[in-house]
Amino acid sequence: MTEVLLSLKGLTKAYPGVVANDSVSFDIGTGEVHALLGENGAGKSTLVKMIYGLVKPDSGEMTLRGAPYAPGEPRQARADGIAMVFQHFSLFDALNVAENIALGMENPPKLRDLASRIRDVSETYGLPLDPFRTVGDLSAGERQRVEIIRCLLQDPKLLIMDEPTSVLTPQEVEILFLTLQKLRAEGTSILYISHKLEEIRALCDHATILRLGKNVGECIPAETSASEMAELMVGSALTPPERGDRTFGEVALDISGLSVPSPSAFGTALRNVHLTVRRGEILGIGGVAGNGQDELLSVLSGETLTEADAVKLGKDPIGTLGPVARRALGVLAAPEERLGHAAAPDMSLTENAMLTGATREGLVKNGFLKWAAAKEFAERVINEFDVRTPGPENAARSLSGGNLQKFVIGREVLQRPDVLVVNQPTWGVDASAAAAIRQSLLDLAAGGCAVICISQDLDELMEISDSFAALNEGRLSAPRPAAGLTVEEIGLMMGGAHGMEVAHV
Amino acid sequence: MDLSAINPALLIASLMVAATPLLFAAIGELVVEKSGVLNLGVEGMMIVGAVAGFATAVETGSPLLGFVAAAGAGATLSVLFAILTQYAQANQVASGLSLTLFGLGMSALLGQSYVGVKPPQMQKIDLPVLSDLPVVGPILFGHDPMLYLAIALIAAVWAVIKFSRIGLVLRAVGENHDAAHALGYKVVRIRILAILFGGACAGLGGAYISLIRVPQWTEGMTAGIRWIALALVVFASWKPWRVLLGAYLFGGVTVVQLNLQAAGVAIPVEYLAMSPYLITILVLVILSADKSSAPAALGRNFHAAR
């Protein structure tokens, strides 16, 4: 590190009931890739929002190149050479690439000049992109390119990247890293937020670790082992889930030749999907978001009906049965979107337990609801899955993401499913809770349940699944045994870099 | 039955007059909806504009001042809607409907002393040579200035939305308010400005009915225009020129059916009266088959704090 570009001193920000950042201090050097590490809820996002001017700190100060720096709004931060690539892309689906980029600039040139500048920059940095395509049609990797190019066009001194790789295939990650290394060579500083340790070890010069809003340590990632960093992050050593010995029984769920048209304009059609899961087996389904995960889940859960023979439970066709009928037969599902799909946000946990548990837990009698039994069931989920909440009468919305996730997964696991389908079971959940959820899926499989786990977290899939398949543009690759698969092979199953070669960097 | 009494040139000229209030209301609502706000209070703002414009024109003797007052009154009423939905985070549908009820009631109160009064006439534009042309003259060049203003507004809104920075930001706010906020755009401020513009346009549309089309003041005289204006925006796929097409179609069928009624055609009056609505909706539904999608954030409230 040569000279300091941005220096943070004692930044503090409190929200009602929680201190998001508690006097955080560190320096970012010029031309340095600085990692900001931490669990979900550690305060990483709040911290970068303060740097980007979206949130005002309660106390503390920042200096940029020696001068005091207190951006009142993102516009000011951009004027000072700070750019940010958001975790959930801040893009407009109905507008084209050039329009999206123009919106992120202070004084955009005419659209035609802008288009040629976009082409220049995208070629220089190996990020191929057509300025006149509609963003809604782009893959996640391409959308991220739009964001990055939007930042690069403003010639930033500091580029903030909030979990940039969570939606990319391994090959796309490689392209991104080449781009970032080129930027670093040109003297741009990068603040890189992630909880993926191997990535940080490969890319970053320096790391600051946050836990519960506090700066708990700094390290040079290349000289620190991943487990040491993980301990700093979590505060204790982690026990990885136990696989245990399992024997596979007969085929529990069989899908053959399933094709379903896309349910919406920006959705994905499923094309000729085949899969079988045996009792006691965990099938991991990987793939970049938006390649048919949601559609596959809704076919399996019964939200989307198909021909009777396309989906079979054992030998019985169930393709025309809706979710309630499937639940009665033991086919359960926990969708990805916690608020609104897996749980009704404004209803209490008891009511949410009633919603999916009514059939299998016998919570309904002659059309009347047995609230006492539902409350008991909700309490059982809360206790067994360590859901942190004052009680089952609280609204689902009031739980943090991780806690609600434990609740919606636990609610299905405790209903003794024969087939369980989960989508992103540990999305937004901190490491210890994620380990607990994975363990419960493994235990369930050990008890003879067939589990289909759809996820974008490859580490997770490698940790728990027996066989692995990938979704790419609505097609499912042939499942392969998970043991022994290399990252390259997985990347290719996921569709590589989505048909785009690495341009000459 | 005597169809020869219908003069095609006069028919087209009166079609344009019949369509103009609708044009004002719909283009205003289009801008509001592009910003992601659904204001169902169009009729409330129109009727308030109608009475304010009428009263001002009668008192001052100047129809032009009347129109200015109407735009101001429509915008003022829309401030109420803006406060309710943008600051108090009230439901947009309920706020819009109550705005209509409030506007109807208030205009009836304000207009009591103006029933039966004749307003001052607005001067028609008189272009020496052009207006005297046969056929084309009375159709295109013999109208009042407000009619041309409505057409100019359509063109201006189209150009602004398509080519300008303001239009791009407007679309962005209506498309994804969270992303727009993250980029540093003032979502609430932009939406309020759009709502004010919509209110002013609706006010002008109302005053056009009371000062030029009818011209006199009666309670609830804007009845029916609101729903067709709202439907027009949707079925025109939020495209200004299609709004113009739809409005002229509606105006055209309205005028034709009135002429047919007068000529004594043997179709029950009820069917003739419903025909403009039916035909306009039908044509626009067919046109909107290309699924040009609505602003994605339409009708959703924006909370900055999160």
Overall description:
The complex is a heterodimer of chains A (505) and B (306). Chain A is an alpha/beta fold and 505 residues long. Chain A folds into 2 domains: 4-234, Rossmann fold (3-Layer(aba) Sandwich); 251-493, Rossmann fold. Chain A contains 16 helices and 23 strands. Chain A has helices at 44-51, 74-79, 97-103, 111-124, 140-152, 170-185, 197-203, 226-234, 293-301, 323-329, 349-357, 371-384, 401-413, 431-446, 458-464, 487-493; strands at 4-15, 18-29, 33-37, 59-64, 67-69, 82-85, 158-162, 189-194, 206-211, 214-219, 251-260, 270-278, 282-286, 311-313, 316-317, 331-334, 364-365, 368-369, 419-423, 450-454, 467-472, 475-476, 480-481. In chain A, strands 13, 16, 19, 20, 21, 22 and 23 form a 7-stranded mixed β-sheet that branches. In chain A, helix 3 (97-103) crosses helix 5 (140-152). Chain A is globular, with a radius of gyration of 24 Å. Chain B has 306 residues and is mainly α. The relative contact order of chain B is 0.21. In chain B, 70% of the residues lie in helices and 0% in strands. Chain B has a single domain (3-115, 146-290), classed as ABC transporter involved in vitamin B12 uptake, BtuC, CATH 1.10.3470. The model of chain B has no long low-confidence stretch (mean pLDDT 87). Chain B has helices spanning 8-34, 42-60, 63-87, 92-111, 136-140, 145-163, 165-175, 177-182, 187-213, 225-235, 240-263, 269-287. The interface between A and B is medium-sized, with 20 and 18 residues.
Task: Quickly list its features.
heterodimer; A: 505 residues; alpha/beta; Rossmann fold; 24% strand; disordered C terminus; B: 306 residues; mainly alpha; ABC transporter involved in vitamin B12 uptake, BtuC
